[in-house]
Amino acid sequence: VALVLGSERLGISAEMALLCDGAATIPLFGLTESLNVSVAAALVAHYGRLARTRALRERAGEGPRAPEAAAHSGGALLNASEGDLTEAEVEALAADYSSRGKRFLEDDPWGEGAQAAAGAGVGAAEGGASEEGER
């Protein structure tokens, strides 16, 4: 699954739209004119998670359309976090996630990557901001 978020003014290109399986918009009410792309991504991820949980519940025989959904699925059950991963899969993902920062520092302990992660920004590795960055 890939989420493609377009710009406020132009959206996504026609070529990208042809590659997508669907499209959605986020309705804005009141005085809100637009959303920052990170806020839009968070909303999409949140409501996607809710929809997935609802679908898993229905498949397990717990939701409003449970009887017909359970008949087709074999009754998959949700875990304690309302997901469909096993406990071993959750632990493996958590271990991989927590090791990423450690691997990053081991691969590049004081190089450009570590400086960027610490907020030094582009150009800091060469001894300061570039002339264009100061303007």
Apparent shape: flat
Count every beta strand, where a strand is a DSSP E run of 2 or more residues. Answer: 0
Q: What is the end-to-end distance?
A: 40 Å
Secondary-structure element pattern, one letter each = HHHHHH
How much helical structure, as a percent, in the residues? Answer: 40-55%
Structural class, from helix and strand content?
A: mainly alpha
Q: pLDDT below 50 for ≥5 consecutive residues: which ranges?
A: 67-76, 121-135
Task: Work out the helix count.
Answer: 6
* Range of strand content: under 5%
What profile does the largest beta sheet have? none
Roughly how many Å is the radius of gyration? 22 Å
Mean pLDDT across all amino acids: 74
Descriptive report:
The chain has 135 residues and is mainly α. Helices cover 51% and strands 0% of the residues. It contains six helices and no strands. The two termini are 40 Å apart.
Structure characteristics:
135 residues, mainly alpha, 51% helix, disordered C terminus
What topology does this entry show?
Layout (H helix, E strand, L loop, with lengths): L13 H6 L17 H24 L5 H8 L13 H21 L4 H6 L13 H4 L1
Helix pairs in contact: 2-3
Structure summarized in a few sentences:
With 135 residues, the chain is mostly helical. Helix content is 51%, strand content 0%. The two termini are 40 Å apart.
